Each structure stands twice: as C-alpha cells, then as structure tokens.
Amino acid sequence: MIKNIHIKNFKSIFDLNIDVGRINLFIGENGSGKSNLLEALVFVSASEADKLDNEFLSTRGIRVTEPSLMRSAFSKTNKTKDISITIVNTDETTGYTFYNDESEYSKWKTLHKIFNEHDEIVQLLNKSGELKEKNDIEKFAKSLSKSEIKSLLSYFKNRKRNLDNFIIYSPENTALQKFESENQIQPLGINGEGLLKLLKVVNSYEDKSYINTIIKSLQLFNWFEDIKIPSNLSYVEDELIIKDKYLYKEINQKSANEGFLFILFYITLLVAKETPKAFAIDNIDASLNPKLCTKLMTTLTELAHKYDKQIFLTTHNPAMLDGIDLNDDEQKLFVLSRNKQGYTRQKEITKKDNPISDDGESLHLSEAFLRGYLGGLPKGF
Questions:
Q1: What is the pLDDT of residues 179-208, one digit of tens each?
Q2: CA dihedral in degrees (373, 374, 375, 381; nearest 10)?
Q3: To the nearest 5 percent, what fractions of the chain are helix, strand and coil?
C-alpha cells in the first residue's frame, strides 16, 4: 500500500509531500490541485508500464497538455525542469524523474530509482535503469550471473506494484447504460465502460460472497429488490434486469436512474478481483443525494478494508465528509488550496481539528466545512 507521495514540478504542484492512508478524501475549491495530485499517480503508473504516450495517459484520466504546461508553469525557469515523483510503499521507496525534450511529437521519458538500503537487487535494478537510458540494456543482461538473474526473476515475481493500472475514474451515465460497447481499457474504462461484462465475471466466481456483497450494497436504495445478471460472458445478452419492489414489471439499466448505476459501478470497482488495487474517483458525489453520499463513504471504507483496495477520492459535497472516521488512521481527509505563489498545498484534517459547537459537541464535518472552519472554500466572493 502507498504510504507517502512526494511530487515536484507537476502542474499546480510545485513541491508537495503527503502521507496517505487506505481511504483518502480530498476537498478544496475548484482549481486547487485535487485532480493534479491524482494525475501524478497516473503518471507513475504509466512509467511502470513503460507507456508514457499521450494516448495511454489520456485514457487513464490525465488531462494531457503541452509539456511546458505539464510542468509547474509558475516561471520560465521551470519550463524545461524535470518532474519528480517519489512513492513510498509498504515494501520500498521509488523515485521517478520525468523529462521531455519538447520536440515535435516527443513523448515523456522516465528514469526511476529504488532507495532501499543495502540490497543487491536494488543495486541491480538501478543499474539496469541507468543502462536502459543509454540503450545498453543488452550489455547489462549479458553481465549478470545466474544467481543475479534468479534473484531478479524472484523479485519481479513477488513485487507488490501498488500503482499497476492506476486509473482516475469519472463515470458517465451514457457509458454505464451502453453495455454493448466494450472499452479498450480492461476491465473498466474511465467513464464506466465494461461494467456489465465485469458483473458477469464477478457473478461467475465460485465464491458467491462477492456478488452477494454487490447486491446487498444496492439496498442503499429503498426501492431496490434484486438484480439479474446474464450468465453469458459475451455481449449477446446485454441487459441487466433490475427489480423495483414498487413496480409490477422489471426494468433494465437503460431505465435505471443514474445514481443507482453510479453506486453499482463504485461497489463493483471495489469488490471485483480484476480491478486495480489502487485507483481514484474524481467527483464521487456526482448525481447522488447528500445523505446517500454519507452512507456511500462509509460503505466504500468498509469494502476497501475487506477487499484490500486503496482509494483516492475528490468531492465538493460536504455530506461525503460525514461518512469518514477520523479516529481510524487508515482514513484520511485532506484540504487542498493554493498559496500566494499559486502552489498547491495540503492540510490533513485530524480529529483534533474538528471544531466544537456552542453546546460542547463536535460539529459534523459537513457543517464545519460549510462554515469555513476546515478551509477549502472560495474566498473571492
């Protein structure tokens, strides 16, 4: 699991160091840098996959622009500086340096270095990265002994790569309704493409507790009774049958309200074995009732623990805050803002930051946010 993120020279983030948990909720005014922080994690994931081309980045949630604006464009001296991102995982610390020569059709390149101390494997990996940049990786491979090759193979087999396939999801109602269109990203596209096929896969698990968890979670809607998922993994059967307990006739996903489809998407994303171990959801409150937002936050927290997922969420709805438990060290709430130079900065809200009302009771975090006690609200009007 990711423990710490240190970002330098990426969009509005000039220099930001943040300790994160299993569940991370970011609030702040529009343009404060919430999405930029998430995009930095996509950048690292693309580096791990050796796919830093714009097509790969944009399909995973990065708003790709010209290289000079991918860097912190606060001064002309930053125009050609490298982007630096360091990720501290449970098992290792890796630093990534991103650079681009800004020539026509150029793409980003990266070097990464692992910082674990006194580790022969780490020394070999760092050496391979340096030689890769010099197009001399073949020479490096020939220089390895049998024991070194065996050690490297064992390392890659057992390595926990927390940012594999990291995606920023922003589901859209039209994508969730059109089950017949399969996306290039598997198993789920950033707008929710591929949901029905993934539901079919989950439903085919021998352990039925996974699909039962999804169905049980949908009882957040008091009208919901049951769903029927086609068994055929092809797209011939492209309807999800939904039972509304107040209606005599069943409906399909095209008749379902978008809030229901969004919740179905979020729960499936957390429960399925095939989805990334770490991912982000931008503006998770979209199309949801405030009270439902609070309950959803609690549900996502429970499922993230149960299915060993790490999630990064942004919201503008104060009700989301009331579903987070600041007594749990794995649940984190951050306020992002811009300082006088325009740099994105962060403040973690802890239990001691929760204001007390006049009668001595702790305020709901939603009320504290709206009153301006936590920060993250516009000050220009």
A1: 655 566 889 999 999 999 899 999 999 999
A2: -40
A3: 35, 20, 45
Element (H, E) at 38: helix 34-48
> What's the whole-model pTM score?
0.89
pLDDT at 330 over 90: yes
Residue position matching structure tokens 């922080």: 37
Q: Is 245 exposed, middle or buried (0-12, 13-18, 19+ CB in 10 A)?
A: exposed
Among candidate residues 224, 215, 261, 216, the one with its CA nearest the CA of residue 243: 224
The answer to whether 51 and 166 are in contact (CB under 8 A) is: no
Stretch (H or E) spanning 213: helix 209-217
Residue 74 has pLDDT above 70, yes or no: yes
Nearest to 300 by CA among 209, 220, 362, 193: 220
Nearest to 162 by CA among 51, 245, 277: 277
